[in-house]
Specification:
By secondary structure, this protein is α/β, with parallel strands linked by helices. The protein has a single domain, classed as TIM Barrel, CATH 3.20.20. The chain has helices at residues 25-36, 42-45, 51-56, 90-101, 121-134, 151-159, 176-179, 185-198, 216-228, 255-268, 285-290, and strands spanning 40-41, 61-64, 68-69, 79-80, 105-110, 139-143, 164-166, 204-210, 233-238, 272-275. It is globular and about 45 Å long.
Length: 293
């Protein structure tokens, strides 16, 4: 009898995926700021392995639209349902936290809210405006869901003028039914292409997880598709299984292979590529963006 993939024992992590979690006064300041503002971050909700490093450097990636998702992607630790209505005061709380932390660059993402008519695009726009009102010179990157292909929702976010618009394709199209059963690969590509159609000056970015069973050929095909959508920034990181209820890791990709893939992607035409086992969409996002200038 074939074993259910989710019931397979965890694969032992290799040495390059073991790291100490730094902490200290700055780490606690970030945690306290988020707690007092009743705010959520990818760092905690998605069990990001970089939480110690990012919090200790005084930064975090904010999640808006609550902490529950309408989708149930098989790789993601964020909880799903039941959902509350979006909080109209959340944009101001995010802005206050960003100001208190003194950030120069901030990444704002969200859970997917297919239950909201505009997918939460209005709250994204309000959050961008609220942050800029307090900190006019800050650079803002948004990591958005696909808004179910709603072009008006996408326009709402773009018109709020983030500095970077990020949307992850996450994996190769063959694995979508298993990894992202409620998402569509072509819809994600169309969203990225749509950004440039609405505003040709807005930089776009996307990312993939490795270790889910993709092949090198499939990865290169995704690279070409992203370049065809005029996306010029790319992140590549290792998928890490959040729990035994999630998809198992098929393979731990060694660091030298991540380095090689970075060179492949750059040779194909990307302006900047962050590639490594611990790389995530918002990891060193400021450095990646400024590397394209």
């Amino acid at each position: 009898m074939n074993q259910n993939p989710e019931q397979r024992p965890r694969m032992k992590k290799p040495p390059w995926l073991k790291r100490k979690i730094p902490a200290g006064a700055v780490y606690q300041k970030v945690r306290n700021t988020l707690k007092s503002g009743c705010l959520h971050t990818v760092c905690e909700e998605a069990l990001c392995p970089n939480i110690g490093e990012c919090y200790s450097s005084g930064t975090a990636t904010f999640i808006i639209l609550g902490d529950r998702c309408t989708r149930n992607c098989r790789f993601c630790a964020i909880r799903h349902g039941p959902l509350s209505l979006p909080d109209p005061e959340e944009p101001d709380r995010v802005a206050e936290a960003v100001e208190n932390l003194g950030l120069e660059y901030v990444v704002i993402t969200s859970v997917t809210r297919d239950d909201v008519p505009d997918g939460g695009a209005g709250i994204f726009a309000e959050t961008i405006h609220a942050v800029r009102k307090r900190m006019p010179k800050i650079e803002i990157e948004v990591l958005i869901p696909d808004f179910q292909g709603n072009r008006d929702a996408l326009s709402t976010v773009i018109e709020a003028r983030p500095d970077v618009l990020n949307h992850n394709v996450e994996t190769v199209p063959r694995l979508y039914p298993t990894v992202r059963p409620q998402a569509l690969y072509q819809r994600s590509l169309d969203l990225l292409r749509g950004v440039r159609a609405i505003d040709a000056s807005m930089p776009t970015k996307s990312g993939l997880m490795l270790g889910l069973g993709e092949s090198p050929h499939e990865l290169k095909k995704v690279f070409r598709d992203l370049l065809g959508a005029d996306c010029r920034m790319l992140t590549l990181g290792q998928y890490l299984r959040p729990s035994s209820d999630h998809l198992p890791v098929e393979r731990y990709v060694p660091p030298d292979e991540f380095d090689a893939l970075r060179l492949v992607a750059l040779d194909m035409g990307f302006d900047e590529v962050a590639s490594g086992p611990f790389v995530r969409s918002s990891y060193h996002a400021k450095e990646l963006f400024h590397g394209t200038k």
